[in-house]
Write a structure and sequence with these properties.
This protein has a nine-stranded mixed sheet with strand order 10-9-8-3-7-6-4-5-11. α5 runs parallel beside α6. About 14% of the residues have low confidence. The termini are far apart. It has one domain: Rossmann fold (3-Layer(aba) Sandwich). By secondary structure, it is of the alpha/beta class. The longest helix is centred in the middle third of the chain and has 14 residues. The protein is 22% helix and 26% strand.
Length: 226
């Protein structure tokens, strides 16, 4: 029989007053203060994360750049599904992403977006799926969670903060701005709730490297069948 302390220290065990330590691996966000607030010390892999933005372009995508860059350097795929704007590839390059490992998927409906998410998440070479789907039925979200668990990738869903319904997502964040600073509130996580918002000074996009102006041609573009 294992000693009680060994049982309590097992990564699958969490105590209600502490931030949970989870058995599934995580990917560092690249922001120490945010990592400290997240179970596992980063974006949970093999799990669904929802990011609610007070308004589009508030810095929600920039939160993912350090982790995405690390994954592409490790040879993993980053899949963007139905982003609201055409990604500016030189900015991704400036943040350290390797464009040959970036895939953009265009869809014409929420159903196609969910289907594309599931297919990407189940691919063993996928590191993270970033999807923009505002209206998401709970049943569809549960399917995304199952797909993430099957392939070990991080599923990150960007949604509007106008309405924040119940969700089975393992991690839920709200991103806003206060006096030119990014404020992240943890709405849900494995373990106890977090009352104190996390304030980040996100750097401006680094200077675009020379010769990167034509980098958009290096992003793989896929379109779902009508």
């Amino acid at each position: 029989m294992q000693p009680l302390e060994a049982v309590l220290n097992h990564p699958a065990i969490w105590r209600g007053n502490d931030c949970a330590r989870v058995a599934i691996p995580s990917i560092s966000t690249g922001f120490p203060e945010l990592d400290a607030a997240l179970p596992g010390g980063g974006w949970p892999a093999a799990a669904l994360t929802e990011i609610y933005a007070k308004r589009p372009g508030i810095g929600e995508l920039q939160l993912l750049m350090p982790a995405a860059a690390r994954l592409t350097r490790d040879g993993r795929w980053i899949v963007l599904i139905a982003p609201p704007h055409i990604p500016y590839a030189p900015a991704f390059v400036a943040h350290g992403l390797r464009l040959p490992r970036l895939v953009l998927v265009r869809t014409s409906s929420a159903e196609e977006s969910f289907w594309a998410c599931e297919q990407a998440l189940r691919h063993q070479g996928c590191g993270a799926v970033l999807a923009w789907i505002d209206r998401a039925p709970e049943r569809a979200l549960k399917r995304l969670q199952l797909a993430a668990e099957a392939g070990s990738a991080a599923a990150l869903l960007f949604r509007s903060a106008r309405v924040i319904p119940a969700s089975p997502a393992a991690l839920r964040l709200h991103v806003g701005r206060l006096q030119n600073r990014t404020v992240v509130r943890v709405l849900k996580r494995r373990g106890s709730d977090l009352a104190t918002p996390i304030v980040l000074d996100l750097p401006n996009s680094p200077a675009t490297p020379a010769g990167a102006r034509r980098a958009n041609h290096d992003i793989r573009l896929l379109e779902t069948a009508p």
